[in-house]
Amino acid sequence: xxxxALPPDPFAGDPHDPAxxxxxxxxGEQDGLTEAERDEVVAxxxxxxxxxxxxxxxxxxxxxVDCGDCGEQHFHEWSLLRASLQQLLDEGQMRPHEPxxxxxxxxxxxxxxxxxYADAVLSDS
Length: 125
Hints:
Number of helices: 4
Structural class: mainly alpha
Radius of gyration: 18 Å
Strand content: 5-15%
């Protein structure tokens, strides 16, 4: 079959193309995190654990993030966000994942909301 007869590659030119990992280390290897970036991810993981402990019992399912790339909101359940941050820490990048299916936006809060809520609750202690 001629390559022209095949459908176009949907990941052509995408630096996050999942097939890049099949090329071996020289194909798509990126620089690891700097020490400062690693420290930020470790701090984010610690904060995430606190936020989940405080908010999950109140019905909050996770965090909503405004995506700068596509302009849409992305809804991350606690475990998905933790796995993504851990992957960033371990591999230096987050791989694409499936978006939440039909999320209820009222069940998700922003990172800033979590920080403010945690600050308020923990200052009352």
